[in-house]
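quick one, two chains, predict together pls
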Amino acid sequence: MSGRRDENVHMGDEISPSAAGGAPPLVASGVEVEIGGTQILRGADIELHSGELVAIVGPNGAGKSTLVRAVSGLQKPSAGHVAWSGRELGSMRGRDLARVRAFVPQRMPVPAGISVREAVTIGRSSHLRPLSRLTRSDRAGIDEAMDRAGVGRFAERTLTTLSGGELQRVQVAIGLAQEAPVLIADEPTSQLDLGATIGVATLLRELVDTGLTALVVVHDLALAAAVADRAVVVAEGRTVATGPPAEVLTPERLAATWGADARLSEHDGRTALHVAWVQDRPSGR
Amino acid sequence: MARRTLVLAALLVALVAATIASLALGAVKLPFSETIDILFGGGGSASDRQIVETLRLPRTVEALTIGAALAVAGAVLQGALGNPLASPDVIGVTGGAGFGAILIIILLPGSIALLPVSALFFGLLAATLVFVFAWSGRNRGSTGKVILAGIAMLSLFTAGTTGLLAAFPERAPSAIFFIAGGLTSSGWRELETIWPYFAVGFLFAVFLVRPLDRLALGDDVAASLGSRPQLIRLAAGIAAALLAAASAAIAGLLGFLGLVVPHVVRMAGGTSSHTFVIPASAIGGAALLAAGDTLARTLRAPIEMPVGPFMVLLGVPLFLWLLRKAV
């Protein structure tokens, strides 16, 4: 996955004037989330710049998913600020939000008898007024989303017949049909096998190399290191570090945050996490 | 796609056939051609015209409206709650409307004209209570909460109904027709009062088609597209409550139709897309109730039987046959 900084940006028309004027697509600071009396996020900061792929990493229960849901407007923050291209999240209507970001859930429900094309068409519906029909540009947008996500060749198959990897690509296509400049994905590869994971990782990297901005929750640290421009580490509800993956995911950090004796290595575009899987146990019992 | 067009065409043919049969058949049988002539303003003897225009036309329109309303209510609820068991029963409407009607039949038999109003009122009251409980506290508006609150309300109002029947057993027989569900030849009077509820319910349903399709891809995808899943469910609940309560006000308890028609339509069309399911359910429900009502008043004419059991007779075999083929 070399040559990630491709200058071939052809989504420029989607970037709003304010973004071009300097405000990053997403700035969040001091975000806190409380769900049912439990504090899940205790203070998260994140800044997303146009054309980068940021991976959110952290142990189970650290608040990674809650963080991306909060900045996406899917979960109401109890404190902090979130701004999309300079606009405060709280002041944005659903329709406005749909134009600045698309959220791809971990695994969507799969309704019966819905074809890939129909599902991607539903993804386009944020562009439609109630009861209005698809225009030619909507159809073109749907085709382009399917092409970019690589689902065009099985566009007429029903969702129920797809493999996990194909379904994940369809979910990305649904997000792309929204034509928002930022794609947010919550663990898009968590249920996929090795080959399908490579496929989805490559897809996300290609999308970012051709102009998209992406914020992706990644469970696998070696994958995060390979695919992301920047990693944000979340631990116990706070963002504790951010930077290029190799600089952030140090052995000290892996020990402190994950309690792991592990080391990240990168060689020739391949990344690996060397882990002491079975740790020295105290003697006795 | 072709399959859906075919199913829609078949449903439309069934609708036209059921409508003509409903207008032509009854205690007095009229030739189909004469019925069609009368309908379009010409021909027929004065007495035949009177039968069609003042008795059968209102009744047929009622059957078509209520059939469509119950089926759409079921389709909208099943989509919004993502649950195949959802029907107007589940949000308490049927239980409430039943209680409202029995209350009048038992306690105020002299003011039977109040029955539709009372059924409508208690049907909507039950649905409102369901939504108030389902939308308070933690996890507000979740499918599980709506369904459980609905079942609780259904039990409460059903207990009220049976309590009334048990306390006044001598008046119970007059309640049976309402509980079984059936139409009467009472002219346009009831529709004149109730139609706005149908109109608003159908209008909601039309605007819910696209949001329900989004919801089918999950709450998160719907939210990504700028919808609020809770709001979609609430709007669907209001639409279903209006349609089902208005139906119960005129035709009693015909719950089965709302549950089954959307399933039949989905299985026949091979899709759960609401762009197809909602209109097809409306046409199918209208055709089924018009056909059932025609059967109910012709089989043992001039005695009219309640349409409820007949509709079940028509619908269940079809449903079970399709169910056997599905999954």
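The interface with chain B takes residues 36, 72-74, 93-98, 101-105, 108-109, 111-114, 118-119, 122-123, 125-126, 128, 130-131, 171, 174-175, 178 of chain A (CB under 8 Å).
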